[in-house]
Amino acid sequence: MAYPGSTLARITRIDEDILMHRKPLEYASIARRMSWASHRQTTRPEDMAYCLMGIFSVNMPMLYGEGGTKAFLRLQEEIMRQSDDQSIFAWVDRDASASSLHGLLATSPANFADCHDIIPYQDWEPRQPYSTTNHGLQIGLPLTQTKEEIYVAVLDCPSPPHYRGLGISLKRLSQVDEQYARIKVGSLAEVHERGPTHTIYVRQTSVMPETEGIFPNHVLQIRQVPALNTPYQLVDVVYMNAAEKQPPRAILSARNPNPESIPPRFGRAFTMDKAGNRLSVCVVFECSNGTGLLIMLGSDTQFGIGFNAIETQSKIDFDNVRQKYRPKTPGTWAVLEHHLVLVKTEPRVYNSAKYFLVDIEIKEVDKPRDPIQLIKAIQRRL
After folding, report:
1. Pairing of strands 179-183, 150-159
2. Would you say 328 and 340 are in contact if contact means Cβ atoms under 8 Å apart?
3. Which of 173, 250, 315, 321 has a CA that sits 20 to 30 A from residue 31's CA?
4. How many domains does the chain divide into?
5. Surface-to-core class of residue 216, CB atoms within 10 Å of its CB (0-12 exposed, 13-18 middle, 19+ buried)
6. What percent of the chain is helix, strand and coil (3-state, nearest 5)?
7. In terms of pTM, does the model score above 0.85?
8. Quick check: 126 and 163 in contact, CB under 8 A?
9. Could you tell me if residue 42 is inside a domain?
């Protein structure tokens, strides 16, 4: 004969000892308690958060009309004021894009649906307190860098079967104030080794505002061009704002350029005009067939960098070139009659300036063809 407590425990996934009051609610981790409500439905969206105040022993004003997401975020903030159980961050959202930016707090109890077996470590080592600041949630987490700007942070809450620490993926957003955002929220990682602890800041709203990326100075730096043994030789770099007397300083980067491909007589770093669609630099190549290839670099419509390219068989009229500058997005191919041009950029922040490190790639095609088919053919060769 099944006892009522065991039947309810099987249906609700709430521990029988808790249902029968043999253990307190606090015995279960925050993530586990959230999972109990992951499939709950309420008439008013705010009640999804308000109905959980009792099992977390918190109080907060009930503001109908604020919406379910805001109410649930307020609930988690109240919980954090009383608990350092990091399982509150061990949620997943399988419907979210892997590249979308998120804060550390979930937007719904449904994000904890698979968290019924997560438990917290019991103060096995000193743990930094975390708090809400005007830079976002300040927290100390062990970070391990997996690739450029991407890190795995270990939470002090394991899950079976191996009971190792769970990890969340973070993307570093700024080089100057330790700003991060959570990405790849569709899963948690099982972590075998913990990196050193870093104090970081994570804003709950990680989508950048319209003016994201504006710095006192924007600098365009040419980092890599085709090597000398290719059919494309760099013959000139023309700065379109020749009135500037002191060019910005070039900075080092993670990728070393081919030093022999950019002669010392050519500048590498140039100030960009932050106004929209302004041409800053023209990079001129001479092709092995005697034709010229002009790559234009400048601003786009929203404080970033754009590029374009044209083929020419005559002397370049740089005053006319300004009128022809129609910025394309870096990372896309510019399709010309005889060439494909790809410009890749990497942002860096240094000394109150935002640097756009530019890599230029050129490919020759045998004969003109449909642009879409041309790109597909080149990509198959890459």
Report:
1. unpaired
2. no
3. 173
4. 2
5. exposed
6. 20, 30, 50
7. no
8. no
9. yes
